[in-house]
Amino acid sequence: MPREHAPILASRAGRYVEAHPIPRLLPHFQCVWMSSISPDHSGPVAVVPDGCVDLLWRDDRFTVVGPDITAATPELRPGSIVLGIRFMPGAAAKWLGRPLTEIIGREVPMAEFWGSRADRVADRIAAASSTRDKLRVLQELLAVEALRMEHPRQEATMIFRFLKAGASVEGRKIKALRERLGVSERTLRRQCDELFGYGPKTLDRILRFQRVQALARTQADEGLACLALRAGYADQAHLAREVQSLCGMTAGEFVRQLMD
To answer: Does residue 177 sit in the same domain as residue 100?
Structure first.
């Protein structure tokens, strides 16, 4: 895909910052974040898959963004601000009360899950006078909800960390994961569907793609072939196919955007 027609990574469409959530939310959420879209932004934006689920406040709407398999392309207005809070691996299903398989690749109003509770949260956030206050109110209201939520299951953290950590041949890694957990292939698939919205092979594929991003920011000068091997791909062609499939751009353009 020529550079002028490539989508822009969401992180380059404006300013993105992360912070730790308030202490009461730490068992359930890994970070809060804010994305300020540039006033001169135009064109398609790619939010690449990361195996996670986020709650959003965007355009005066309180929504949940399900786990993606390919890049999402939300319409982001120039100058707009998006607030988000990202669930810990495996935590979202309990908060939503429904299987994550129902929201793969979708942004869904929280009212579909919480009914009038979501409307009350949305009203309180809307009434806050500043972006900082909106983010504070969101966290305080979620902290009240957290009092009745179970903590994420330990196997969720284990599965996510095991697949995220080091590069190895896909089949061997998943076999090693099953042995670590002491479960069958069918049981592991069921657990991953429940906790992440898709099976272990898809989750491993997405987390391998995340390794490309981390490596590209520090080791891209070694070339795509070396980057592919370090991230766990069979070769450069394998990397190119996966990047094109997951985010809609060439591997070269993807790395250039990460480096710019």
So the answer is: no
Total domains present in the chain: 2
If asked whether residues 180 and 249 sit together in one domain, one would say: yes
**Distant-in-sequence, close-in-space partners of 260: CB < 8 Å, separation ≥ 6:** 12
pLDDT at site 2: 42
Q: Report the alpha-carbon distance of residue 70 to residue 223 in Å, rounded.
A: 24
Phi-psi region of 248 (alpha: psi -120 to 50; beta: other; left: phi over 0): left
pLDDT score recorded for residue 183: 95
Maximum separation of any 2 CA atoms in the chain, in Å: 53
Q: How far apart are CA 251 and CA 224, in angstroms?
A: 8
- How far CA 242 is from CA of 64, 205, 231, 232, in Å, comes to 26, 8, 12, 12
Instruction: Round to whole Å and give the CA distance between 243 and 109.
Output: 29
pLDDT value at residue 12: 86
* Confidence at residue 7, expressed as pLDDT on a 0 to 100 scale: 79
Sites in the chain below the pLDDT cut of 70: 1-6, 166-171, 220
Distances (CA, A) of 165 to 89, 142, 236: 14, 30, 20
**Nearest alpha-carbon partner for 67 in 98, 92, 44, 85:** 92
pTM: predicted TM-score of the whole model, two decimal places: 0.91
Alpha-carbon distance 187 to 171, whole Å? 16
| Same domain flag for 183 and 137 | no
Q: What distance in Å separates the CA atoms of residue 3 and residue 1, rounded to the nearest whole number?
A: 6
pLDDT for 116: 96
